[in-house]
Amino acid sequence: MGNLQGKRRFSLCYTPPMTACHQLLEILADGRFHSGQALGDDLGISRAAIWKQVRSLKEMGLELHSVQGRGYRLAEPLELLRVEDIRRAMSSPASQRLARLEVHFQLESTNSYLREQESHGLDSVCGCVTESQSAGRGRRGRVWVSPFGGGLYLSLLWRFPQGPGEMGGVSLVVGLAVLRAFHSLGISGAGLKWPNDILWEGGKLGGVLLDVSGESSGPCSVVVGIGINLRVRPELMQSVDQPWVDLYTVTRGEMVSRNCLAGVILDRLITLLQEFQHHGLEPFLEEWHRHDLVTGRQVQLRLADRTITGTAQGVDSNGALLMDSGGVLCRFASGEVSLRVAQ
Ligand code: BTN
Question: Would you say the CB of residue 130 lies under 6 angstroms from ligand 1?
Answer without folding.
Answer: no
